[in-house]
Amino acid sequence: MTIAAIADTIKKKIFPLLACICMSSMAPAQEIFSAPPAKLLSKFRFEQMTGGVILLRAVLDENTDSLNFILDTGSGGISLDSATAAELNLPITPTNRTIRGIAGIRQVDYALHHKLKLPGIVADSLDFHINDYSLLTAVYGVRIDGIIGFSLLRRYIVHVDFDHAEILFYSPGSYKYPRGGTLLRPAFNNLPIQTAMVKDNTTVQHRFYFDTGGGLCLLLSEDFVKDSSLFASKKKLMPTVAEGLGGKKQMMITTVKEFKLGPYKFKKVPTYVFDDEFNVTSYPTLGGLFGADLLRRFNLTLNYPRAEIYLMPNNHFRDPFDYAYTGMEVYYEEGKVVIGEVVENSPADQAGLKVGDEVFAVDNTVGSSFQSIKNSLQHAGNRLKIIVLRNKVPMEIKMKVGRID
How is 343-390 classified by DSSP, letter by letter? Predict the structure, then answer.
């Protein structure tokens, strides 16, 4: 065979074969092994409480009455109120285990091996730790029977739709997130821990708890604030009181110029600063937490089985923040709205309000609901006429709601 004939053979037979091989090596894989698709198990409505906190109703064991649970990514387990446990005559197992919160450390006992029924799903073999949630009941004006945290969340993919006040539970599996959002991959130690950026006098990137159970925007430890020089020395911080595990806690409140979570930036964010005396944040491991009043601005997908959280900005994304400052706390106790704390020199103190005053009317509306009274106190600049009963004697008090900035 001549050289020309050999070359012609290569051109006609070998080159097409090589091209085929090259093309096949560039072709996408035809088989990808993956988990089975996540299946929708349940979809039902939830109630949104003050500060974006999510309230779910569920039934314990074979009882018929439903109980109220807060959905809390800041809880490393699942829990029941001590009064609820007593009313249900649950066997309690003493332990030496303790839990820490911003206002204290408590030793807790357990109610073991129970099941929780939410609409469409039943979660069994749950060990509930027992705690006193009477203060939370007073804060929200509805009975709080427990908190749902990691022990339940780790079993499902949970989608929280704040636009429609709906929650969806899926089985673990491959799950397609919608377009237009951001996927977070927080560190998990029972609780999701997410890196974020906070900016004021300085710009600091640090790690924070992702906490749907906290009815606030941002909570920072004093140690973090001081070591980072986050605030200039002239920054104005105002005294206030907040509630957490262990009881009430004296704090300061102010704003930060910017908080950035993933690609999302929020300006002038209300921020609490607290003395972390019980080392909840294990500083310098964490700087604090961001809570439900910020997270309610997204529809959330909590994919604990894959250690992922997906954020999708919703219709509340640009809602204004609450800059109101009264310096007092109101609680719902035994069917009455009662003033529980008054900070010295605050607008409430200057107006003459006292601890124990029973709020009878606001702006001539007698018998205002607890929620409407709280809402009226959340508008900076409002001038309110408040009728209180003090030692059963009615008094009219005028107060202008202040601002934290």
Answer: -TTSHHHHHT--TTPEEEEETTEET--HHHHHHHTTSTT-EEEEEEEE
What pTM value is reported for the model?
A: 0.90
CB 378 within 8 A of CB 325: no
Helix, strand, or coil (residue 18) = helix
Residue 239 CA neighbour count, 13 Å, CB half: 11
Q: Can you give the pLDDT at residue 106?
A: 84
* Amino acid residing at 215: G
Spatial separation of the C-alpha atoms in residues 173 and 232, rounded to whole Å: 48
Instruction: Please give the pLDDT value at position 29.
Output: 58
Q: Where in 200-357 does DSSP place strands (E)?
A: 203-210, 218-221, 238-244, 247-261, 264-274, 288-290, 298-303, 308-313, 324-325, 328-333, 336-342
Q: What is the DSSP string of 306-317?
A: GTEEEEEE-TTT
State the pLDDT at residue 110.
97
Instruction: Give the angle 345-346-352 at the CA atoms, nearest 5°.
Output: 80
pLDDT for residue 10: 45
**Which residues of the chain fall below pLDDT 70?**
1-33, 245-246, 366-368
Give 60's strand partners: 116
pLDDT at 20: 46
The sign of the torsion formed by the CA atoms of 317, 49, 153, 290 equals: positive
Q: What angle do CA 38, 39, 45 make, to 5 degrees?
A: 115
Structure confidence at residue 361 (pLDDT):
87
Per DSSP (E only), the strands in 40-179 are 40-45, 47-48, 54-60, 67-71, 78-81, 98-101, 104-107, 110-118, 121-131, 146-148, 157-161, 166-170
Contacts 24+ apart (CB under 8 A), 376-380: 377/324, 377/326, 377/330, 377/401, 378/322, 378/324, 379/324, 380/322, 380/323, 380/324, 380/325, 380/404
